[in-house]
Design brief:
By secondary structure, the chain is of the alpha/beta class. The chain contains 8 helices and 9 strands.
Length: about 270
């Protein structure tokens, strides 16, 4: 089944099951306890997340495509985090790269098909609050999906009222009580928002802004998996003075903190 042939939720799950079988074969795992998707600039977090087992190119598995966005690796790493087997995707693809939402959510579906009961979705984000400075990790309590897309098709509705696990958020607070919670708004990109659009998003209750996480979260919730969302502020999207976005600077902020973020994820996963 090719990328263009993933027309329904059932098709996407079937392809994920095929990829999961190959993933388990390559890693020698019976199953995985959790999956982690690392966002832009987060790849270095894998080095402090746990003990690496095996790593390979994601495109070697059915249904995966190579990321083209800056700061994203197309590698998959099998790891031990304490006594938990974790599959880590060192990057992701986005709709703005020309991919269907089914493809965007494929890594998450594959990890869940391989047994993961916890999905940790990470990313970088612009701050819509003056008290969320660049470098600040934010635990997601909810999201606003403004991509006008979904990784689901069909007549069955999926309840998203508790998309981000209360249990996992409580564990995260126990690990680091200083981490704030916020609402993540997902837009399609690649264009950035105008000052007027940013004002509307703030008025709508959004705290941070990005172009990922939401579609993956929807797919994970539909498959019955607990989700933890964690975004690090990479830039000030809007403050007292509107500052033009500089991709290199934003990526550098996340990359510089990636090892500490890996340590944070280690403590969360070992406690979950």
């Amino acid at each position: 089944m090719s990328e263009s042939e993933q027309r329904t939720t059932g098709d996407a799950k079937a392809l994920a099951t095929e990829a999961a079988k190959e993933l388990l074969t390559r890693t020698g795992a019976d199953s995985f306890d959790a999956l982690v998707v690392l966002g832009s600039g987060w790849a270095g977090a894998a080095d402090t997340l746990g003990s690496a087992d095996i790593e390979f190119d994601a495109v070697e598995l059915p249904g995966f495509v190579e990321p083209t966005a800056a700061g994203h690796s197309g590698r998959i790493r099998s790891m031990w985090v304490g006594d938990k087997r974790v599959v880590v995707f060192l990057g992701r693809v986005h709709t703005y790269e020309g991919h269907d939402p089914m493809v965007v959510a494929h890594a998450v579906r594959t990890g869940i098909a391989a047994g993961a009961q916890v999905a940790v979705l990470t990313g970088s984000a612009g701050s819509l609050r003056t008290d969320f400075a660049p470098g600040q990790p934010v635990v997601l309590r909810d999201h606003i999906n403004l991509t006008a897309r979904s990784p689901l098709t069909g007549p069955d509705f999926v309840d998203m009222s508790e998309a981000y696990s209360t249990r996992l958020r409580e564990i995260t607070r126990e690990v680091d009580a200083s981490l704030p919670e916020g609402v993540y708004v997902a837009t399609s990109g690649p264009q950035l928002q105008t000052p007027a659009e940013l004002k509307v998003l703030r008025q709508a209750g959004a705290d941070v802004l990005g172009r990922s996480i939401a579609l993956e979260s929807i797919a994970a919730v539909e498959m019955g998996t607990e989700v933890l969302g964690l975004a690090i502020v990479s830039n000030d999207a809007v403050g007292a003075v509107f500052e033009p976005f500089k991709e290199e600077k934003a990526l550098e902020i996340v990359t510089r903190r990636s090892h500490r973020l890996g340590e944070l994820l280690n403590r969360i996963l070992t406690s979950s």
